[in-house]
Amino acid sequence: MNRTLATLVGLITGIAGGALTVARGWPATDALAAANLIGTLWLDALRMTVLPLVVTLTATGTARAIAAASGGAVIRRAAVLGLMLLIVSTGVAVVLGPPLLSAWSPDAASLAALRGAGTPVPGHIAGSGEALLKLIAPNLAAAAAEGAIPPLAIFALLFGVAAARLPVERTRTVLDALAQTAEIVLVIVGWVLTLAPIGVAALGFTLGARLGLGAGSALASYVGTQLAVTGVLGGAMYALAALGGRVPVGTFARAALEPQTVAASTQSSLAALPAMLAAVERLTPGSPASAPAAVLPLAVALFRLAAPASIVIVTLATAHLYGTHLAPATLATVAGLAILGTLIIAGLPNQTTFFAAYAPPLLAAHLPVDLLPLFLAVDVICDIGYTVTNVTADLAVAATASPSETR
After folding, report:
1. 101 within some domain
2. Cα gap 361→402, rounded to integer Å
3. Would you say residue 254 lies in a domain?
4. What pTM, to 2 d.p., does this model score?
5. Is 180 helix (H, G, I), strand (E, B) or coil?
6. Residues contacting residue 165 through CB under 8 Å, at least 6 positions apart
């Protein structure tokens, strides 16, 4: 948490410093060159971990998810319901994101500065036929060299599914090797993230110099959109518990209050798990004691409702800032990668895996990842809402999937 707050402070300081430098007319050529160099080096250090993390985490995460969801009717019901909710999460973000983000519209000069300083971005992404052709790569090595994320993610997904169909003793060695590779890469990510306050401050300085204090308005619009979408998803979970689990809204709200309080104070669904177990036992009287004990860990690990919406909003916010239109086929790809990213980063700290989950949709949409560290810095504000919504969804899924003799 100290590093997260330091990163947020670095972002605010960088944006304010860049905006003030330009507004006062101070000599900024050397400072901008230095900030751009530092920010680019730090960003490239994070970029280099994306491909290995996507491949290893997707393969191992898919195999793990299939294995976890294969035992017991309650687990299967929870897995199906959880996956449906992840799909709904992306849909809500796609529908609500654009109008909420449009509340702040950068001026033409700011857009030109952003496009000139970052990776070239097309004004319109290719149509559905071309987008579909890019989902499969005949040469995976070439795809990796080009940084093409979707075909690599699809291959890793199929690899994980195929591994789950074979006997465990025949695939354990390969999956363990991939998991250990992911752990090694995550150590490298941790090293890079120790420099996050410096790297983000440098990126914030260049952004503040280009957009002025409007950069702060853009990030505020992003935070507001994330919180609004997360709030809608969290509120819908009360309806799910009432309709699918036949739990009165008042009863569900009272039972959920303690886990939500723990989630808000710790920003950790795992820390709220004991309180969730106690709550779901009150919500499902007469159900086997093993049912919630099996469903909740699976829900906590894999089905974090706010995560796919958050990933989609990041992509939409970047497209909005760069004045880019995303075609329906591209949005579908982004949504699919958002769901996949949610599943593969299960149980790992958000900062550590932020790039592994959030960069692939951006790259698939041909958008630059330059703003991603800035979104990560302000995500500390959104994280409370994410965690509370995730815990509420976990309880609703457990209450709906677990049988109760009193219903």
Report:
1. yes
2. 34
3. yes
4. 0.74
5. helix
6. none
Q: Is residue 238 part of a domain?
A: yes
Name 18's Cβ contacts closer than 8 Å, sequence gap at least 6.
28, 32, 35, 204, 205, 206, 207, 208, 209, 210, 215
Judge whether 407 lies within some domain. no
Total number of domains constituting the chain:
1
pLDDT tens figures, 292-321: 556 777 677 677 899 999 999 999 999 988
For tokens 């491949």, what's the residue? 55
- List C-alpha distances in Å: 354 to 42, 53, 196, 393, 394: 15, 11, 12, 21, 21
CB atoms near residue 88 (< 10 Å): 16
Distances (CA, A) of 73 to 61, 76, 80, 293, 396: 21, 5, 11, 14, 17
Which structural domain range is residue 6 located in? 2-401
Reference 57, options 156, 174, 189, 149; nearest CA is 156
CATH of the domain at 87: 1.10.3860
Confidence class of residue 89 from pLDDT cuts 50, 70 and 90? very high
Asked if residue 124 has pLDDT above 50, the reply is no
